[in-house]
Each structure stands twice: as structure tokens, then as C-alpha cells.
Amino acid sequence: MRKTVIAGNWKMNLSEKEAISLAQSIKEKIPSVAKDRIPMVFPSPLHLASVARILEGTGVVVGAQNCYPSGLAAFTGETSPEQLREIGVKVVMIGHSERRQFLGESSSFCNEKIHYLLKNGYTALYCVGETLAERESGKTFEVIASQVKEGLKGIESNSFSNLILAYEPVWAIGTGKVATPAQAQEVHAFIRKEVAGLFVGASGVAESLSILYGGSVKPDNVTALLKEKDIDGGLVGGASQKIDSYQGLF
Ligand code: PGA
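C-alpha cells predicted for Triosephosphate isomerase:
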């Protein structure tokens, strides 16, 4: 059974006061409306511990936006998954397009992170997506295939229960230009097919994988997107950062 996930990506937004107040409102309002959708939030690293404390035991999963694939060690400015575990955080987003685009994160570095996380009992939320230029030049499927293959290289089929994928077309992020449900479905089905190809002989793996769609998801388009066969939830930026619109996604 695939899990349906509504993941809120707070990015580098919200002051400490705003993050705490949003977490408190989520604690009050989301558990009763979440039902068959798993709520997740990804606050800025500075607010993770406070938000995790507020949401502990509520069923709202708190995740980190990034990590470095190592135990405690000399990597200035980075965060180890071991430090995340200490504050109750066991889900980490990997390869968001803003990290790929502005911080030079490659699929092969994402692959190192995913290996580390899955080997050590964490869940990885791995993001892929094409830019507008790539889509317009007909390269969407080529780009997605390479991000999927490189990012998931060498991952054992038995660790797939701790993996979630997200398809986020870069041209739809923060732009208000949402992919149509049909456009998104086409790429989701392709991703599932690519994943199936990576695991010959483990046929259930790709079918049981949750693939979230991200890019201008809002309360008024979430239902149509989630109706598609291969769309198993949303990775939501802007609309997840206010309680009313986040609640509207459930
Ligand atoms: P958006 O962001 O919902 O604001 O488009 C999505 C994301 O970047 O995860």
C-alpha cells in the first residue's frame, strides 16, 4: 500500500517566532484532519529542534531539508543525521532543485546521502525535476531518467520502504504555474517505470513507492493532482507555510 504524504517545505522562510507559531497551529489543527494523508513538515535547520519538540507524538512527521552523509566529524557548516536523530528527526529531504541549482548539488552526491540515510535507518525524500529550458528542448525524460538512475544507484530493493520520491518541475516551483494533472502523471508513471527497471526481479518495489508532486500545489489543485494514479501526495512550499492553506491540503 502506497502512503499518501503531504509534505510542507518551509525552505529558508519564517522567523523563529513564525515557525513556532505555525508548529503550534499544526499541532492543534492537523492531526484531526489528516486521516489517510501523512502530514510532514521540513522547517529550517535552526528551527528543527523546537518544531520537533512541539510536534512530538502528534503524528506530524518532522524532517530536515538536508544533511551531510557522515557521523559526527569535521564538516564545517553541515549537519549529521546522527545530530538529527538526537532531536527526533529521521526523515531528510535530498536533492531539492534549489540545492541543485544554487548550491551545485549533483545526483551523485545525493546518491551518497541516500545510501548513508537508508543504511542507517532514516527515510530519504529524494527530489527530481527538469528546468523550463530542459522541458522546452524536449529533454524532460532524459533529465529525469538520469536523476533517478544516478541518485538511486546501488540502493538495495529491500531498503525502498524508507524511500519517498518527489517530482518537482523547476518551472512550477514558486511560480504559480502548476503542471496539469496529466503532465505530472505522465512523468510520475515514467519515474515508476525507471525505478522498476533498476530492480529487476523485485517487481513490488516500484509499485509500492510513494511519488509526491511538487510545484505550486495549493488547496484548490491538490485534489485533481492526487486523483492521478501515480501521484501519491504533495511536496508543498508556499501553501504549507500558512496554517489555513496547509490545512486545506488535507
Ligand atoms: P511551491 O514550492 O509549492 O512554493 O511551488 C514547492 C517546493 O519547492 O518544494
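The radius of gyration is 17 Å.
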